[in-house]
From TrEMBL:
Database matches in PROSITE patterns: ABC_TM1 (PS50928)
Membrane-protein topology: Multi-pass membrane protein
InterPro entries membership: MetI-like, MetI-like_sf
Descriptive protein name: Putative aldouronate transport system permease protein
Protein family per UniProt: Belongs to the binding-protein-dependent transport system permease family.
One GO location term (cellular component): plasma membrane
PANTHER family according to UniProt: ABC TRANSPORTER PERMEASE PROTEIN MG189-RELATED-RELATED, POLYGALACTURONAN_RHAMNOGALACTURONAN TRANSPORT SYSTEM PERMEASE PROTEIN YTCP
Cellular compartment(s): Cell membrane
Record flagged with keyword Transmembrane: yes
Family matches, as Pfam families: BPD_transp_1 (PF00528)
Keywords carried by this UniProt record: Cell membrane, Membrane, Transmembrane, Transmembrane helix, Transport
GO BP terms in the entry: transmembrane transport
């Protein structure tokens, strides 16, 4: 009995040790980024592990937030995040609901076209020429219009709409409701989890995207936050600014780590509130057929 109790204790202990080690491996990069961003110049330039800030100071964040293009990048990212997410949800719902109805004509052909766009892409040069002909170059709308429709998200929404019992739709038709009223009064209130899931996917995409900025926008006042951060991390565009405004400028590593924190802050703030709907919506979209 004693040997059995000892074995019962050692097995959970090993499991907890492995899980704690994996958690430390995952969490440590975030700890390192935060510690370096708040550390003084000498400590930030030191190689090795960083767990807690030493020579604690706010210089990197102060200089970063005083950088003139950070706030314009934030406003442009906020524009594409809000407008792009709303536009994506509108297009996704308007495309998925008709395709989910059994009496909609040529729906199989349209679904095949959706699948075709997931496999084949027009390419960078044709996309650039298209944006040029539409007069979207150096415009904020180039961030939201090309990505308003996403085939995968339409298929996820289509899968959920098909899972809604037809009896609800038929009962509404008997009561005299038309398709628009059925969509907004019955279908959409039942579709909160997949809507939040698709909205979060779109939001994260717009926060992280910078390739469209790199290809279509040259006006620095219209750069998104990711492009501004890219200039700081790769091209060190902020160094001349900090050198001109400080006798002892912060370490480049502190600036880079502070920029990472500033960039990820919107997702860290929004994600916990949407996690419940995100998990439910993802499961619905993956299981229902």
């Amino acid at each position: 009995m004693k040997a059995k109790r000892w074995q019962d204790r050692i097995a959970p202990g090993m499991i907890y040790f492995v899980l704690a080690s994996l958690a430390l491996i995952v969490v440590y990069p975030f700890i390192h980024v935060i510690a370096v961003s708040f550390s003084g110049r000498g400590e930030a330039l030191r190689s090795g592990f960083h767990f807690i800030p030493r020579d604690f100071e706010w210089t990197a964040y102060r200089e970063l937030l005083n950088y003139p293009f950070i706030w314009s990048g934030y406003s442009n990212t906020l524009f594409r995040m809000v407008v792009g997410t709303v536009l994506t949800l509108l297009v996704t719902v308007c495309a998925a609901y008709p395709l989910s109805r059994p009496d909609f004509p040529i729906k199989r052909f349209l679904i095949l076209l959706l699948l075709f766009t997931m496999i084949f892409d027009g390419g960078i040069v044709p996309s650039y020429l298209l944006m040029k002909e539409l007069h979207l170059l150096n415009s904020l709308w180039v961030y939201v219009l090309p990505t308003a429709a996403n085939a995968f998200q339409v298929l996820v929404m289509l899968s959920f709409f098909r899972s809604i019992p037809d009896a609800l739709i038929e009962a509404a038709r008997i009561d005299g409701a038309r398709d628009i009223r059925i969509l907004f009064r019955i279908v959409l209130p039942l579709s909160i989890p997949p809507l939040v899931t698709i909205g979060l996917w779109s939001m994260v995409h717009h926060i992280n995207a910078f390739m469209d900025n790199l290809l279509y926008v040259t006006d620095q006042s219209k750069f998104v936050l990711q492009q501004v951060i890219r200039q700081i991390l790769i091209e060190n565009k902020i160094d001349p600014f900090t050198t001109a405004t400080n006798l002892v400028p912060p370490a480049p590593e502190s600036l880079k780590m502070a920029s990472v924190i500033v960039c990820t802050l919107p997702v860290l703030v929004v994600y916990p509130f949407l996690l419940k709907y995100f998990e439910k919506g993802t499961m619905i979209g993956s299981v229902k057929g």
